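job 3f2a | input accepted
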Amino acid sequence: MSGKNDGLRRKRTKYKRSSAFNKTKRDPFDFKTDYSAEKSWQRCIERIAIAQSTIGIRDAMLCVESVVPNREYRKEGYVYCSPSQLEEALKRMRTVYLRKKK
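job 3f2a | predicted structure (102 res):
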């Protein structure tokens, strides 16, 4: 005899698998809003193109990628963002330009 009472020991509870805990793969490029027709978005894109020629493509794209938090929106060389995110990226490009100018 081991001295332990088998009836009083706690047994493991078996849980059923649920589909609620499974990760579902969603398409990150399925956007409901298309900003390409907006004037503010077009102006931001033009200003980013100008910034690429002045501060360099690598620095400009690093500024844009730093604004977009999710990796899903930065796949295969494309960055998907809104006009407000583009404006924030332009602010960061200005600081890079001022640092390089000195």
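job 3f2a | Residues 48 and 90 are 7 Å apart (CA to CA).
job 3f2a | closed
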